[in-house]
C-alpha cells in the first residue's frame, strides 16, 4: 500500500483585503487507497477548500500532503473532480466532453475508452447530444464519465448531487458506488447530506465550523449494499446529528 | 355529440388561426405601406416640387437606368471592396487584441486607458487627419474602416472572454488541458456569441463610415454618388442610393447573423 493519502497538520488561510481568514486549521487525516471517505460539515466551513487543495487547484499555507511517499504538490497523481454544477463545455457533445483532454492515447484507444465510460454511466444513444439537451442527472453522469475516463487515482466529489432531485440523487449514489466497487478508486466526498455520507462512506469525517478542523471520525462498519432504513443506519445518523446539534441542547428524537 | 362538438371547435380554431395570421401580416406591413402611399400622394399632388420630392415612377426609372448602365454596380463594388478590406483587417486585429486583453489582465490594464480615450473619437472625426496623412485615395478609407470595426470587435471580445465561467477554467487546470486547447475549445467558443455581437456592430459602423468618408473625399462609391447627385439636383438618384445603402447594410447584418446562428448551433434548444 504505497498509495495512501496522508494529510498532516494542514492549515489554510485566505487574505481578504487586509484581513486574514483561516479556513482550515490543523487537519490530520490518513486515507487508505481505495477508501471512500465522506466529509460532512456546515456550508461554508471550508470543506470544499480542502477538496480543492487535494485537487491541486488551491495552494495551502502550512502542513504537508503526501501521496504514497511523494509530496502531493510535486506528484503526478491523477485526480478527478466532480462539482455540484456539471461544468461540461456547452459547445461539445457528450462524447466530445468526455474525450476532451485525453492526451497520450491513440485514436482507437481513445474511442474505446470513451465508449466504455458511456456504457458504464448508461448514456448510450446520447453520444452526440449537447449538454443543453440533457437532464440534470444525465449531465452529471456525463461529468462522472469525464472524471473516470482519465482513470483517476483519487476522485473528489464536491457536493456532486446537491443540485439533483431526491430520486435522481439516490439513483446516482448507487451508480457511483457501482463504479467505485469496480474501479477501486479512492473517493473523497464532501456533502451536507448526512444520509448520503453514511450510505456511501467507509468513514464519515465530521468537520467543525470555520476554521474547519476534524471533530470526529465515524467508522461506518455496515455491510454493503447498505439499507437506508436499517436500524444501524439510523443509529449512525443519530450519532452524527448529535455532533452537529449537541450545543443547542435540543431533543434529538425530533430529527429522527 | 361529443364528436360534433370537437369538429366545431376545430373549425373555430382554424378560423381563429387564419385571422391571427392575417392580423400579424397587416400589423407588420402597415407602416411601410402607409409611408409609400403618403410619398406617392405628396409627390404627385404637386404640394412639393418634384425636384425635391420625386414621384415613385421617377425614382424607379432612375434605378433602372443606373442599374442597366452599370453605374450602380460600379459604385457598390468600389465601396464594398474598401469596406471588406478594412473590416476583415479591423475585426481580426480587434479579435486578437481582445483575446490578449481578455486573458491577460495586465495587458488590459496597459492598453485600457489609451483605447478608452481613442474609442470616444467618432470615426468621422478622423477623416481630416487621415486625408492629411494618407491622401484622398483608398488607403485613408481602408484605415478609417479598420478603426471603425476594430473597437466594437475588441470590446465585445474582451467581454466575452471575461464571461467564460471560472468553473470551466478550473476544470481545465484539473485535467491539465493544453494551453492551445484552452484557447481554442474554452475561451473562444465561450466568447463567440459576444464576439458576433461585436462583428455585427463593427460591420454597421464600417458601412456608415465608408459612406461618410466618400461624401467628403472620393471619386467613386456609394457616398460619392449620393453627394454628386445632390450637386446635380438629381433627388431621385439620391433616394435610389439611400435605399441601396439601407439594403446593403441590412444584408450584411443578416449574413453575419445567419453565420452566428450556424456557428452557435450548440446553443439551440
CATH class division of the largest domain in chain B: Mainly Alpha
- The coarse overall form of chain B would be flat
Uncertain parts of chain B: none
Q: What is the highest CATH level, the class of the largest domain in chain A?
A: Alpha Beta
Distinct helical segment count of chain B: 10
Structure classification of chain B: mainly alpha
Strand order of the largest sheet of chain A: 6-7-8-3-9-10
CATH superfamily of the largest domain in chain B: MetI-like
Taking the alpha carbons of the first and last residues of chain A, their distance comes to 39 Å
Q: What's the order of the H and E elements of chain B?
A: HHHHHHHHHH
The tally of strands of chain B reads 0
Mean pLDDT of chain A: 87
Q: Using the coordinates shown, work out and report the CATH topology of the largest domain in chain B.
A: MetI-like fold
Which descriptors would you attach to this protein?
heterodimer; A: 256 residues; Rossmann fold; 2 domains; six-stranded mixed β-sheet; four-stranded antiparallel β-sheet; 7 helices; 10 strands; B: 269 residues
Layout of helices and strands:
The complex is a heterodimer of chains A (256) and B (269).
Chain A: E1 5-16, E2 19-31, E3 36-40, H1 47-55, E4 62-67, E5 70-71, E6 79-82, H2 94-99, H3 107-120, H4 136-149, E7 154-158, H5 166-183, E8 186-191, H6 194-200, E9 203-207, E10 214-219, H7 231-245
Parallel strand pairs in A: 3-8, 3-9, 6-7, 7-8
Antiparallel strand pairs in A: 1-2, 1-4, 4-5, 9-10
Helix pairs in contact in A: 3-4, 6-7
Chain B: H1 2-45, H2 56-68, H3 71-103, H4 105-119, H5 123-134, H6 138-162, H7 166-174, H8 179-216, H9 222-231, H10 235-263
Structure report:
The complex is a heterodimer of chains A (256) and B (269). Chain A is α/β, with parallel strands linked by helices and 256 residues long. Chain A has two domains: 33-60 and 70-78 and 152-256, P-loop containing nucleotide triphosphate hydrolases (Rossmann fold); 89-151, no CATH class. Chain A has helices at 47-55, 94-99, 107-120, 136-149, 166-183, 194-200, 231-245, and strands at 5-16, 19-31, 36-40, 62-67, 70-71, 79-82, 154-158, 186-191, 203-207, 214-219. In chain A, helix 3 crosses helix 4 (136-149). Chain B has 269 residues and is mostly helical. Chain B folds into two domains: 1-48; 56-267, MetI-like (MetI-like fold), CATH 1.10.3720. Chain B has ten helices and no strands. Chain B has helices spanning 2-45, 56-68, 71-103, 105-119, 123-134, 138-162, 166-174, 179-216, 222-231, 235-263. Chain B is flat and about 75 Å long. The two termini of chain B are 41 Å apart. The interface between A and B is medium-sized, with 20 and 21 residues.
Amino acid at each position: 500500500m504505497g498509495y495512501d493519502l496522508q494529510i498532516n497538520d494542514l492549515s489554510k488561510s485566505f487574505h481578504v483585503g487586509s484581513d486574514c481568514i483561516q479556513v482550515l486549521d490543523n487537519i490530520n487525516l490518513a486515507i487508505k487507497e481505495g477508501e471512500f471517505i465522506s466529509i460532512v460539515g456546515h456550508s461554508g466551513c471550508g470543506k470544499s477548500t480542502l477538496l480543492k487543495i487535494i485537487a491541486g487547484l488551491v495552494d495551502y499555507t502550512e502542513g504537508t500532503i503526501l501521496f504514497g511517499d511523494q509530496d502531493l504538490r510535486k506528484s503526478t497523481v491523477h485526480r478527478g473532480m466532480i462539482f455540484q454544477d456539471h461544468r461540461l463545455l456547452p459547445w461539445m457533445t457528450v462524447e466530445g466532453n468526455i474525450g476532451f483532454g485525453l492526451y497520450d492515447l491513440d485514436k482507437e484507444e481513445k474511442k474505446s475508452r470513451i465508449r466504455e465510460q458511456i456504457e458504464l454511466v448508461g448514456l448510450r444513444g446520447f453520444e452526440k447530444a449537447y449538454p443543453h439537451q440533457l437532464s440534470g442527472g444525465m449531465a452529471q453522469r456525463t461529468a462522472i464519465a469525464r472524471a473516470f475516463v482519465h482513470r483517476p487515482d483519487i476522485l473528489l466529489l464536491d457536493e456532486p448531487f446537491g443540485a439533483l432531485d431526491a430520486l435522481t440523487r439516490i439513483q446516482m449514489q448507487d451508480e457511483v458506488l457501482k463504479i467505485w466497487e469496480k474501479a477501486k478508486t479512492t473517493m473523497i466526498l464532501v456533502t451536507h447530506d448526512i444520509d448520503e455520507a453514511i450510505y456511501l462512506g467507509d468513514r464519515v469525517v465530521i468537520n467543525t465550523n470555520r476554521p474547519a478542523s476534524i471533530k470526529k471520525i465515524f467508522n461506518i462498519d455496515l455491510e454493503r449494499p447498505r439499507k437506508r432504513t436499517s436500524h444501524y443506519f439510523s443509529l449512525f445518523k443519530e450519532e452524527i446529528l448529535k455532533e452537529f446539534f449537541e450545543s443547542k441542547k435540543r431533543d434529538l428524537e425530533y430529527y429522527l | 355529440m361529443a364528436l360534433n362538438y370537437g369538429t366545431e371547435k376545430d373549425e373555430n380554431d382554424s378560423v381563429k388561426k387564419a385571422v391571427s395570421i392575417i392580423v400579424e401580416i397587416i400589423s407588420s406591413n402597415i407602416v411601410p405601406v402607409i409611408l409609400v402611399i403618403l410619398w406617392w400622394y405628396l409627390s404627385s399632388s404637386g404640394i412639393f416640387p418634384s425636384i425635391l420630392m420625386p414621384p415613385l415612377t421617377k425614382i424607379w426609372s432612375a434605378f433602372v437606368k443606373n442599374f442597366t448602365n452599370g453605374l450602380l454596380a460600379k459604385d457598390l463594388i468600389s465601396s464594398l471592396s474598401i469596406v471588406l478590406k478594412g473590416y476583415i483587417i479591423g475585426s481580426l486585429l480587434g479579435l486578437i487584441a481582445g483575446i490578449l486583453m481578455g486573458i491577460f489582465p495586465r495587458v488590459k490594464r496597459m492598453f485600457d486607458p489609451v483605447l478608452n480615450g481613442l474609442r470616444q473619437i467618432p470615426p468621422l472625426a478622423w477623416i481630416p487627419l487621415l486625408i492629411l496623412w494618407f491622401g484622398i485615395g483608398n488607403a485613408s478609407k481602408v484605415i478609417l474602416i479598420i478603426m471603425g470595426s476594430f473597437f466594437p470587435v475588441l470590446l465585445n471580445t474582451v467581454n466575452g472572454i471575461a464571461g467564460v465561467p471560472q468553473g470551466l477554467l478550473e476544470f481545465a487546470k484539473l485535467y491539465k488541458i493544453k494551453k492551445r486547447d484552452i484557447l481554442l475549445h474554452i475561451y473562444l467558443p465561450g466568447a463567440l456569441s459576444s464576439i458576433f455581437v461585436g462583428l455585427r456592430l463593427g460591420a454597421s459602423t464600417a458601412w456608415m463610415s465608408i459612406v461618410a468618408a466618400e461624401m467628403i473625399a472620393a471619386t467613386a462609391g456609394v457616398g460619392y454618388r449620393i453627394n454628386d447627385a445632390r450637386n446635380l439636383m438629381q433627388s431621385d438618384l439620391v433616394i435610389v442610393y439611400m435605399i441601396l445603402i439601407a439594403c446593403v447594410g441590412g444584408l450584411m447584418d443578416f449574413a453575419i447573423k445567419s453565420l452566428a446562428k450556424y456557428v452557435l448551433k450548440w446553443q439551440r434548444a
